[in-house]
Amino acid sequence: xxxxxxxxxxxxxxxxxxxxxxxxxxxxxxxxxxxxxxxxxxxxxxxxxxxxxxxxxxxxxxxxxxxxxxxxxxxxxxxxxxxxxxxxxxxxxxxxxxxxxxxxxxxxxxxxxxxxxxxxxxxxxxxxxxxxxxxxxxxxxxxxxxxxxxxxxxxxxxxxxxxxxxxxxxxxxxxxxxxxxxxxxxxxxxxxxxxxxxxxxxxxxxxxxxxxxxxxxxxxxxxxxxxxxxxxxxxxxxxxxxxxxxxxxxxxxxxxxxxxxxxxxxxxxxxxxxxxxxxxxxxxxxxxxxxxxxxxxxxxxxxxxxxxxxxxxxxxxxxxxxxxxxxxxxxxxxxxxxxxxxxxxxxxxxxxxxxxxxxxxxxxxxxxxxxxxxxxxxxxxxxxxxxxxxxxxxxxxxxxxxxxxxxxxxxxxxxxxxxxxxxxxxxxxxxxxxxxxxxxxxxxxxxxxxxxxxxxxxxxxxxxxxxxxxxxxxxxxxxxxxxxxxxxxx
Length: 490
Known about the structure:
Layout: E1 12-14, H1 26-31, E2 33-39, E3 44-50, H2 55-76, H3 105-110, E4 121-132, E5 135-145, E6 150-161, E7 167-169, H4 178-193, H5 207-217, E8 221-222, E9 226-231, H6 238-241, E10 252-257, H7 258-261, H8 267-275, E11 298-304, H9 311-320, E12 326-329, H10 338-346, E13 350-353, H11 366-384, H12 400-406, E14 410-411, E15 415-416, H13 425-433, E16 440-445, H14 449-465, E17 468-469, H15 472-475, E18 485-486
Parallel strand pairs: 3-4, 11-12, 11-16, 11-17, 12-13, 14-18, 15-16
Antiparallel strand pairs: 1-10, 2-3, 4-5, 5-6, 6-7, 8-9, 9-10
Helix pairs in contact: 4-5, 9-14, 11-12, 13-14
């Protein structure tokens, strides 16, 4: 038998590490905001995710998303528009599909859950490549073209640290000069993988070889033993030529053990490497997380007349789905509903003014209207800990003098479920789910048990159509109107 191979660095060719399957990683899934967009006119479908509270990470992911949508618009000749579909579209499934960034490009484009309608256009898919301690890594891949002709295919990896708010690209895990230092060990690993028995020290590498390694560092992902990256086909070196391999013909994933990588990584990379296989420790998201209604089709579901004994159950259902709502509450219930109102704001919902005891404001004097609004604002702010900025007139009744006396904008609705009529569950769900369009405001009441019971179906139905459920202020891009009456976002 030949003597054992003398390994020094132990850099070696390995199988590509498998991504995190979010369907089987509930702690990770609960910490992120998944986004799924589809516009058949622009021939694009996209899946990605955001990490609430990590601004640099989210900014990088948003740039990637916008780049994909812009490319789709250029290719299709149709500008991307936030779009929803009839019930049954299945768009409530929003998590990254594990392994999708490693599929053949044709499979990405033609899979109905990943690619554009008809299999031709642009697909943006994602994989979580790291989730340990406070670190999360996301690979986003943008594929354009058709199964017959792929026009472009790019992938970018971004790492975020929820503890510091920092983010880096995959290449940013490495210190400057890491490719040069690793070059000889990589050639050694590749020639061993090709079957070489030579013990001769490998060469330092020419410019083309070093450039190929630098490009490979942009694919870096963590492994149980260290860090790995993939060298694209076409890699060459004199040591390979001597074996009759002019250039590699398949991607080769090379693993650098932690002991070696520790001397070559950036400060961010050192912290992530040190985190190793520690359990993922990023808190579950609060509310909807990242939201941009210029990209995602948004709808605001609003509950009137509470809080009531049914409101906590409604909050449970919203929270379980990462959805938020706006509660137009009555001042007379503020003190008794303090715990529920506090919970609303803690979980990312919004509390706004629905008067003290629900009178028709057009029947009142200006002084009485002001008293109804002002006393309610004081009570709700004291109970919820959140500023009250808009109001909803009971029964939707108002006039110019009402608005002037209230001193704040009125938020109405363009979708009325008439749940006070106590329709059947199927009718109520249809009224809440089918009419909305991006920018809509839906009216329901959290004082009716039938509405509370229907809430899971209403939320799921809106998600299935492709909507993102947001608060009223999010619907108005974070800047609520200060005057006038509004039935939907402009």
